[in-house]
Amino acid sequence: MPLHGLDVPNAALDDALLRDARFLSDARLLAALHGELRRRLGPEDAAAVLLQSGFVHGLRDAQRASFDHSPYGGASGIGPAPSLLAFQLRSAPDALGVVLCGSWPQRTEAEAVTIACGGRSDAPGCLASMGYTSGWLSALADSDIFAFERRCAADGHAACDFEARDASAWRATGDADALARLDTIPFAALRAI
After folding, report:
1. Collapsed DSSP state (helix, strand, coil) of residue 117
2. So what's the pLDDT on residue 13?
3. CA 47 to CA 21: how far, in whole Å?
4. pTM of the entire predicted model
5. CA-CA-CA-CA dihedral for 143, 11, 25, 110, to nearest 10
6. How many CA within 13 A on the CB side of residue 103?
7. Cα dihedral sign for 150, 154, 157, 159?
8. Spatial CA neighbour of 182 closest among 138, 142, 140
9. Are 151 and 130 in contact (CB under 8 A)?
10. What's the N-to-C CA distance of the chain in angstroms?
11. By the 8 A CB rule, do 155 and 135 touch?
């Protein structure tokens, strides 16, 4: 399945994004990817591809972390694998249930967006990070969880902060910005990859 319905000329790019997650932890590589995707696809389709590819990697990493890879079928003693993308979480109740508030302390993607834009961005830009965190949390909760960036270091904030909620809770908020991004993540189709 191509990401965001990309046509055949972009299939190699799709394949590379799904095979190798290194782009998530290298600011220069991620900056080049942001720039190339925007140039090829335009800002909205580029955002969808970044969200979707991040989601797939987050989902895979969380699934790998939750399985015991011991050849003997018992506890391996190794413990869970860490997330490729560092994030901090705390939970808080609200009118719609539990919301997870978090941040990406390394701000790798914010640095990448700043490089790609040649300076400050005009909006939060940690799209692959939102996707990765959404995939990771969705796998652990066995539910459709979406992490939406509220503040970004790339647009002048001190940190990259996000909120994560179940997709149905996001829909109930009516938050147009969050829903526009949420609607680009076909949860079931991305799980099938």
Report:
1. helix
2. 52
3. 17
4. 0.86
5. -80
6. 11
7. positive
8. 138
9. no
10. 7
11. no
16: amino acid identity, one letter: A
- Rounded Cα distance between 159 and 155, Å, is 10
Q: Which of 3-12, 20-29, 77-86, 113-122 has the lowest mean pLDDT?
A: 3-12
The pLDDT of residue 12 is above 50: no
Going by C-alpha positions, the residue among 112, 88, 113 that lies closest to residue 164 is 88
Instruction: Point out which residues pair with 145 in neighbouring strands.
Output: 166
Angle at 171 between CA 49 and CA 87, to 5 degrees: 55
Q: Are 127 and 106 in contact (CB under 8 A)?
A: no
Which range is least confidently modeled, 54-58, 75-79, 89-93, 97-101?
Answer: 75-79
The Cα 27–Cα 150 span in angstroms is 20
Average pLDDT over residues 81-107: 88
How many helices and strands in the chain, by DSSP H and E?
Answer: 8, 4
Whole-number Cα distances in Å, 60 to 56, 84, 116 = 6, 11, 27
DSSP character string of 76-94: -SS-PPPPSS--EEEEEEE
Cα–Cα distance between 60 and 191 in angstroms, integer?
9
Helix boundaries (H) for 20-166: 27-41, 43-66, 108-117, 127-141
